[in-house]
Design a protein that fits this description.
Largest sheet: 4 strands, mixed
Oligomer: single chain
Number of domains: 2
Low-confidence stretches: 1-28, 48-59
Mean pLDDT: 76
Helix content: 10-25%
Distance between the termini: 132 Å
Strand content: 15-25%
Strand order of the largest sheet: 3-4-5-6
Radius of gyration: 37 Å
Number of helices: 4
């Protein structure tokens, strides 16, 4: 449609130029040819048609939020997200994460380590790294729950195509985030950093001492054989 509008505008300009310069198709006699030098610059050449430009991102995709299972592992659940840009789709997915598991997911004994009323917002998205701000934390989790909540955010955000890593902010200020080991880092966080939360902890086999069999009756001593 843009090319059509440009074409109409060009033809209107030609008509206006004809009226103002007194050139054009005469009312009588043989038609005369207008010299190219008498035509205003740009009006003699055809107007370029603008080619349609595709949006930088797809308008929808299937991404995943991550919840905590009864076995304390992080499990994904799909969400249909839509938006005009990758940033809008990421923001929508984070809203789903902040809202907590659905009723059906709670029936599956899925939960979240994120505190109630948490707000997750995307402040930047550059070169595949999303900066996510956490606000209105209320009662923030502590210990391993903190690490699980960060893992939920990172694994959820990086499930959006084109998002490879995450930086965290707290009320607009950059913060160091805990890795599964408890170590703090200011580097961008990737899904690989938190894969250990997606598998059950290995069970340690405990050897139990086997009870000794009960002692039998004492042996009977045989006396000397009787004389024959």
């Amino acid at each position: 449609m843009r090319g059509i509008r440009l074409g109409r505008a060009a033809w209107s300009a030609v008509a206006l130029a004809v009226v103002l310069t007194g050139c054009g198709v005469p009312t009588g006699g043989a038609p005369s040819t207008i010299a190219p030098s008498d035509v205003p610059y740009g009006l003699a050449s055809p107007s370029p048609t603008a080619s349609p430009t595709a949006p930088p991102d797809a308008v929808g995709d299937t991404s995943r939020v991550h919840w905590i299972s009864a076995e304390d592992t992080l499990v994904p659940r799909t969400r249909e997200v839509s938006g005009a840009s990758r940033r809008e789709r990421l923001a929508y997915l984070l809203e789903q994460l902040a809202a907590g598991p659905s009723r059906g997911e709670r029936d599956e004994q899925l939960s979240t380590a994120l505190p109630p009323e948490v707000e997750l917002s995307v402040t930047r998205l550059d070169d595949g790294t999303a900066t996510i701000d956490l606000d209105a934390l209320g009662q923030a989790p502590a210990g391993v729950a903190t690490r699980r909540s960060v893992a939920q955010i990172v694994l959820t955000a990086t499930s959006v195509p084109g998002v490879q890593s995450v930086l965290l902010q707290l009320a607009g200020e950059p913060v160091e985030a805990p890795l599964p080991s408890g170590e703090l880092t200011a580097s961008p966080l990737t899904a690989r950093d938190y894969l250990s939360f997606t598998t059950p902890a290995p069970t340690v086999a405990v050897e139990t001492a086997q009870p000794e069999p009960p002692a039998g009756p004492p042996p009977v001593e045989e006396g000397p054989a009787p004389p024959s």
